[in-house]
Amino acid sequence: MLKNFNVKKSVPICLGLVILLTFTFFTVSPYATNARIITIKSDAFIKEVIRLTNVERTNRGLAPLVENESLFKLAFLKSQDMAVNKYFEHKSPVYGYPKEMMQRFNIKYDWLGENIGKTNSMTNTTPERLVKAWMESSTHRDNILNPNFTIVGVAYVKNSDGKLLWTQLFMKP
Predict the structure, then answer these.
(1) How far is the C-alpha of 136 from the C-alpha of 120, rounded, in Å?
(2) Interacting residues of 138 by C-beta distance below 8 A, sequence separation 6+
(3) Using only C-alpha atoms, what is the Rg of the chain?
(4) What is the pLDDT of residues 117-167, one digit of tens each?
(5) Strands 164-172 and 151-158, how do they pair?
(6) CA angle, corner 49, sides to 46 and 52, nearest 5?
(7) Residue 81: CB partners within 8 Å, gap ≥ 6?
(8) 31, 54, 8, 14: which is closest to 151 by C-alpha?
(9) How far apart are CA 13 and CA 56, in angstroms?
(10) Of 21, 37, 46, 152, which has fewest CB within 10 angstroms of its CB?
């Protein structure tokens, strides 16, 4: 079977396949998940959630969180996973707990936190309501106000019921 195997021709094909699979993995498909986000960081709602999160931090003398592209992507994957697999909890049937997800994607960290949220729709959800709800929950508030966290990524996906599934990831690399 390996008689006609040509290494010089096979390596570029394999490399191309790896690149294609990687691109496909991190490309948002609105057909697969009813995804609301096409470009993760440019969404005005997400930007406002991050701004309000930083207002809560700076009002208490903490440094603002810096947006991080890797965390945006992982937050989107987590929200997408919750929508596709129809669950709402911190442990994913695909990725495990957030620390296991970070390990899977080879992301090193000293501190890690995750907030998730579920809202009815964009029409009756505002960034203020979302951040307020997180601040009214002691565990979510603890993540937002954790002085060890330095970077953040936020994403959401609309599930098949029309609910928005939010993920806010915090980290100190």
Answers:
(1) 18
(2) none
(3) 18
(4) 998 766 667 889 999 999 999 999 999 999 999 999 999 998 888 889 999
(5) antiparallel
(6) 150
(7) 92, 93, 94, 95
(8) 54
(9) 50
(10) 21
Give the number of other Cβ atoms within 10 Å of residue 160's Cβ. 10
Is residue 158 a contact partner of residue 75, using CB atoms and an 8 Å limit?
no
Which of 138-142's residues contact partners 24+ apart within 8 Å by CB, and which partners?
140/115, 142/113
> What is the distance between the alpha carbons of residues 45 and 29, in angstroms, rounded to a whole number?
20
**CA angle centred on 59, ends 54 and 64, rounded to 5°:** 30
Residues 104, 105, 106, 108: is their CA dihedral positive or negative?
negative
CA distances (Å), 164 to each of 54, 55, 76, in order?
Answer: 22, 23, 12
Order of all β-strands in the sheet with 111-119: 66-67, 151-158, 164-172, 111-119
